[in-house]
Please model this.
Amino acid sequence: MTALAAEVHAALRAHGATLAVAESLTGGLLAAELVDVPGASATFRGSVTAYATDLKASVLGVDEGLLAVHGPVHPVVARQMAEGVRRLLGADYALATTGVAGPEPQDGQPVGAVHVALAGPAGTLVASPRLSGDRAEIRRSAVTAALELLLGHLARPAPSR
Model:
């Protein structure tokens, strides 16, 4: 995965942009992958690992009513996590991960239900890949999905003005 993280950093540098991450499902794995790349400090602002549901609200600004009704594994939760950490850490882009790694379902969500969000200057995108494997494989796959979401966005040509 480090090669993918290196590509992300190169693309961020090419755009003169910075990145922050908010993690739940991945528990710091995404940030660790990003900082494994030499020179990461040029583009990576930092991360918040909000594993506990209440921290998603109190630190990242996720709507408490949304969390109460839908739980932490929801696409709008991922969206609000990304937007919250982007604001909090002053980054151009932010990624967020939430989901169920298993081994048991959580809040009515099956193992492998994952939501990854990308917040940036043009708005927020959410991808909801259905992942499989054991707990470690799902977490690693979620990191890959997040990095690919950002890289795919940065690879697109900028809209002309």
Q: What stands out?
A: The chain has six helices and five strands. Residues 135-155 form the longest helix (21 residues). The chain has a mean pLDDT of 95.
